[in-house]
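Practice record 12: protein with geranylgeranyl diphosphate.
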Amino acid sequence: MSLVRSHVHASPQAADADPPQGGQWRGWYEGLRARVDALVQERVDRMKSADAGHSQLAAAIEYSLCQKGKRVRPVLVLAGCEACGGRLDDADAAALAVECIHTFSLIHDDLPAMDDDDLRRGVATNHKVFGEALAILAGDWLVAEAFALLAESPCPRRGEMVAALADGTKAMTIGQAADIAGERRPADRGLLEFIHRHKTAGLLEASCRMGALAGGASDAQIAALSRFGAHLGLAFQIVDDVLDCTGTTATLGKRSGKDCAVEKQTYPAAVGVEESRKLAAAEIAAARAALAPFGARASNLARLAEYVLSRER
Ligand code: GRG
């Protein structure tokens, strides 16, 4: 199934969203992000033209899925496929599926029963606009949609993609539960690493794994890209912790200082900001080392890892 018929150019929305620096690489990233934005829009349009379209539920789904996001997870799917010599058309469904799961997690994470946030991706959170019931249902729909997308994928290994995405999604729930349980408890490095590996790294690992599967990778390549995703994912969340302390609400598009306020388990709370940056850099070095078997074919992925380290939102 080809969800996007031809290459598309970056939309104004994509151009607004945290443009990573760096000439040619930036063009590569924005090209893939624009492809993801087009996939999202095509699927949302299809949803709206179906029976349940034009409802408030459809509006709630569209509201969060179409907001400015970095699209890091779907870009990882596409880039992983590319690094294995695959065709992007074979990775589109998995790319869109992981963005559906990610968006679901953001909507539910912002609910009063979880992090109780009013700002996400620079706009009011889903439940602030549509109410808690619709926000919960929008998340529920997005999970079902993610697995429906994989069922429609042309990739012969879509069964393994389903398993990878289910593992990543389950890891998120386990990590989120541990995160909530860890609030207002003394910083604990072991617990912290467990939370971050599950809550955030699991889905990034699943993204890379699905990209490899779409690209027809060997078992060794799948293992290498999964390792890359796991290290990248841990670094991603450490950087997120640091940004919560050092970034501004305007730049982040979400409230800064929130983790501190509820005494969450974070790396800066456990080891300080400078040591956190060093640990993130070490994870990125390990991520890049995992790409060695791919040689130059993974140069864009290696650069993406550097971007994760230097990102400002
Ligand atoms: C999702 C299965 C499932 C259950 C709900 C709410 C929840 C359990 C888990 C929360 C997971 C979560 C929100 C982790 C934080 C990960 C993170 C750093 C999110 C921000 O990702 P970015 O920076 O955001 O990629 P954009 O907006 O750019 O997409």
